Amino acid sequence: MSQGAARKAVEAVWRIEAGRLVAGLARITQDVGLAEEFAQDALVAALDQWPGSGVPPNPGGWLMTVAKNRAIDAHRRRVVHLRAAERLGRDADPTDGPEPDLEDALDDHIGDDLLRLVFTACHPSLPMDNRVALVLRCLGGLSTDEIARAFLIPEATAAQRIVRAKRKLAEQHVPFALPTPPEMAERLASVLEVVYLVFNEGYSATAGQDWTRPALCHEALRLGRVIAGLIPREPEVHGLLALMEIQASRLRARNGPDGAPVRLGDQDRRTWDHLLIRRGLESLARAEALDAPVGPYTLQAEIAACHARARTAADTDWERIVALYTVLGHIWPNPVVTLNHAAALGLAGRPADGLDKLDTLDEMSRGAGLSGYPQLAAVRGDLLARLGRSADAAAEFRRAAAATRNDGEKALFLARVRDLQP
Amino acid sequence: MRYIVLLTGHRPTDAPPELMKAIMELGAEASASGALLDTAGLAPATDAARVELREGHLSVMDGPFTEAKEVISYAIYDVRSKEEAVEWARRFMAVHQQHVPEWDAVSDVLRLMGPEDFGPPA
């Protein structure tokens, strides 16, 4: 096997096994940072040996054995070191006990271990960007370089986020454990937030020339599917997955042949990915079948599903979407929901109500910095255009174009300005 | 990127229950890891038909067909690389190797065209 082919084969196995490997090792080490390092050692060993020996018949097992041996070596070294310290009359460490029964520890409950890993890597004590980097690294099997490229940051910055995250978990003695029931809601919210942030980073890149960076959407989808398998009884887990599957179904339709972004209403719906839509609707049904109140992700997925079910843009059930936004605004009041609610009112043929809605937003967000948000001007522009106030509308779209950092979006807003000019 | 894995071979007369169990377990693992999007078995060729265009003429033929090899199942994977799709196909075939080593079959790993084939330059 050639070097390049072997490397790719190793990476493919790594991608499949990284999460379970790190999770199983963290059960032994009780330290995600150490576990991740032992797993990396195994990856390095595979990259070194597989090009010569070929990929072993059970590559996941091979990686785990190598990583476990590293963990045992490290444990022995620590014990030797502690005994030496003891001889020198220093305090013995209470962990200086018999070697842990590693075989037993590893064979059971890999699902539980993965779940512990998910919650630990998304621990609220870590800054958000650290959580994101650690999750992509430990669960997604991404390299530091891949994380850096995905987020358009220098590799050193990505590496630093991971190092800091691991250090902080160790310093704060964050246990490799599931949240207690009282912690559960907050901890689950953090997990879902991390996943959705990764998705959105890919779906609407905040900077640069790419309207979407689909690779990040796929990473988030895969994480969402893993988590939905691990936490099947929480509606919002399925709600988030449904939302992402349905939104991702439109990735292909979001750009025209020239690369320019295409708005939802103008998209060629034949190019929507119907396999993802089907999966999204199934996840949504799963969320709603659970005997629990719906949350913001499920409601957003419901809205996305309204679009997915409409054969043409004109078939869209805007009244239902407006109703869903009304509920969403009650349980999860925030400026972006209000903004989308206003836009939906315009599309439901009630642009004046939409403008009223935007006025409540101005009161809500005074001082919250939304005034520079390009979508605010764009929605106002759209509502004004529907009311026939072309000059005011054009001014709003010009403001939106000046405010956005996304080149494709800028072109879209400027096109609206041209359309509005007499 | 997305790959479809098509399993082709002589349809086994009776698959041992352990094989079916192992296939289900692998499928559950691949789904849980987020890679397996869709999979199904295909009914025997006695239920199949073939619509053929040959020398400008259309003909419709009901199964079974003269060649005894059939497409037995498909699986669609969402993966980062061809190698990852190959690894899942390899695991799938290894399960057969373990339970029905005397059986000959082929899994073709084919990329489904996606946005990267039609979209704007990256």
TrEMBL record, chain A:
Protein name (record): RNA polymerase sigma factor
Residues annotated as domain RNA polymerase sigma factor 70 region 4 type: 119-169
Domain of life: Bacteria
Pfam families: DUF6596 (PF20239), Sigma70_r2 (PF04542), Sigma70_r4_2 (PF08281)
Ranges of residues in domain DUF6596: 187-287
Gene3D superfamilies from the UniProt entry: 1.10.1740.10, Winged helix-like DNA-binding domain superfamily/Winged helix DNA-binding domain
Domain (RNA polymerase sigma-70 region) ranges: 20-78
Family assignment from sequence similarity: Belongs to the sigma-70 factor family. ECF subfamily.
Coiled-coil stretches: none
Keywords: Sigma factor, Transcription, Transcription regulation
From TrEMBL, chain B:
Superkingdom field: Bacteria
InterPro entries tied to this protein: Dimeric_a/b-barrel, YCII
Entry-linked SUPFAM superfamilies: Dimeric alpha+beta barrel
YCII-related domain segment(s): 1-92
Pfam families: YCII
Family: Belongs to the YciI family.
Protein's name in the database: YciI family protein
Lineage: Bacteria, Bacillati, Actinomycetota, Actinomycetes, Pseudonocardiales
